[in-house]
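User: Predict the complex with cytidine-5'-triphosphate.
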Amino acid sequence: MHAVGIVAAAGSGLRLGAELPKALVALDGRPLVCWAVDALRAGGVAEVVVAVPAPQRAAFTAVLPDDVHVVVGGDTRTASVRAALAAAREHADAVLVHDAARPLTPPDVVARVLAALAAGARAVVPVLPVVDTTVVVDADGVVEADVPRPSLRRVQTPQGFDRATLVEAYARSHGTAAEFTDDASVVRAAGVPVQTVAGDERATKITVAHDLALAELQVRS
Ligand code: CTP
Ligand code: MG
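Assistant: Here is the predicted structure with cytidine-5'-triphosphate placed in the model:
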């Protein structure tokens, strides 16, 4: 199976609040985007396309390996993945879409996603259980109900897809008003079942400064 990796790295990182786009922010001296590319490759992905913000295209090209394909992303994560997918279209039978914001994803997670695709899954996401008590609140913040946890999962990346399935689902969603926060939602909206494999706490997303501080500790431990 020939898999191409897409790294969504075109966000600005408003919640992290750095001077640079989040994907260029350093973890242990290396930009987050480089960690994410390495994780995909170490897990068995042959080639990688990275979606970057237009104004910093040169800065990304300067830090990424020469054989990584760089494309300009869009205003939303969905638009960025769509742009990268267009560049990756011819090259593979599987596509793994990963967030630059998940730098410490162990290669094992990537390998599990690839194995599920090789076994016939059309779409697969790494997931973790929800460990905190989880509730629904009303508009005033008053708890309305407990949510039973056994069937809940937190979804991570990389998310893996049969290439034609993902291309078709993105084509179908184009021009609709629907907002998607990940790629599995795009595929599910097209009626495709999404399987799960075990994720990893180390693949957690860097969103705010505290997450980056924890990642620095993780690298040094
Ligand atoms: N992303 C992207 N294109 C966008 C928005 C986000 O490629 N237009 C990418 C980000 O670079 C990130 C991933 O999607 O790797 C997950 O998004 P998020 O964690 O929300 O990152 P940002 O959008 O950069 O951060 P924020 O929402 O705090 O501004
Ligand atoms: Mg965002």
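Helices lie at 32-42, 57-63, 77-88, 107-118, 163-173, 183-189, 209-220.
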